[in-house]
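Here is one chain, start to finish.
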Amino acid sequence: MRRRLLAVATVFLTGLVAFPPPAAADIAQSGIVSANPVDWTPHVLDGTVWALAVVGDTVIVGGAFTKVADSSRHTTVARKNIFAFDLDDGSIRSFAPEVDGAIYSLAPGADGTVYAGGAFKTVNGAGQRGITRLWLGSGNRDTSFRAKVNWGDVRVLATRGDRLYAGGTFTAINGTDRVALARLDAETGAVDKGFDAQLSGPGLSRVRVEHLDVTADGRKLVAVGAFLKADGYTRVQIAQFDVGGSSAELNRWYTRAYEPQCMKGFDTYLRQVKFAPDGSYFVVAATGRASSAQKLCDSAARFEANRIGEQRPTWVQRTGGDSLYAVAITGPAVYLGGHQRWFDNPYGTDGNGPGPGAVSRPGIGAVSPTTGRALSWNPTRARGVGVRAFLTVPRGLLVGSDTDELGKEYHGRLGMFPLS
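Its structure:
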């Protein structure tokens, strides 16, 4: 307890910081964010931002990078793969843990901590592969959290209460067999024996969970990735679980919509999935090189979450051949990011220009939660490979990517659109 009190009271570069309970799910917002990003966020000067999390008034940024500058670009500091800044004014925190590999995922923790997952093997010189818990005040590793994966990486993390969900390419955590998906005790990192998804992929070179999300009430989990079965049942690339109780199990929701193959070589073409704030539906973002308007390659698709049996998408937003990697849902809008050029483009094909009715939405855009059609919001960004992370906060939408132009302004791989 003494260590926790000291951690919470630690002084940052910008002063004392209090830590309320963590928020993890996308949050409902009253309107659509402005197309003009704020001017005070810091800049990541190289590499890619893969992950974002917020704890209190601190934003944590993870990825594969080495240098960060303040908003004015007058001061540059070394930050390898992870750093933090003040959500109020963009001031860069002193938080600077050392990890020897990329950070792919972040999740808020209690008492001024953050969980980080990725391709690293050591944290501040100590062996802890793939997953760690860090004190924001000092950057130190929480040594009471002992989880580590056997090999591979952790690509996604989510916290709900005293539970931590992890997905990636691992096959065991702490010596306990868990293929690509696990639930852990958020305090100790111990594997929860009540949840084993039993993901498998006969014929696949490697089973992996690319992304997952959990409803805000902690009752449902949806996972996407390279797998063909869950708990012995056919679940191609996507599965939903009931996780509200002490035990967890695959539920009767399923879809065959992602069974058709996209471009050869994609063991999964699903890249991200997010629940709506009320948990009633989720949206899946996909790549895959579209070859037919009948497939869900290079699309975003909405599915209703609270039904049973075979499901078809409520709507599909098609880019016409460009990848989507990230999604955020706020109520008034579904935000989508990737390296797309167009929305509303079911008849366009990559290399042949837009089809009838297509609208320009370079790199980022928003669609109606009801219809899936493009909204007028069109800030634009330098496309690059694409947006990799969205984070909804009460005052707006944070964006992490691999390029340095957002909303027609310079923003090095990081920016925030405020609520209008």
